[in-house]
Amino acid sequence: MTTISVRNIHVITLLLAGTVGLSACQKPFGGDVRRADTSVNAIDGTGLSDIMLNAADPRESVSYFSRAVGEKPERTDLKRGLAKSLIRAGEPDAAVAAWKTVVAQEDSSLDDKVDYADALIRTGDWKTAEQVLDSVPPTHETYKRYRLEAMVADSNQEWKNADSYYQTAVGLTTRPSGVLNNWGYSKLTRGEYAEAEKLFAQAITYDPSLFTAKNNLILARGAQGKYDLPVMEVTQTERAQLLYTLGLAAVKAGDVSIGKGLIKEAIDAHPQHFEAAVRSLRALEANVSNG
Question: What pTM did the predictor assign?
Answer without folding.
Answer: 0.80
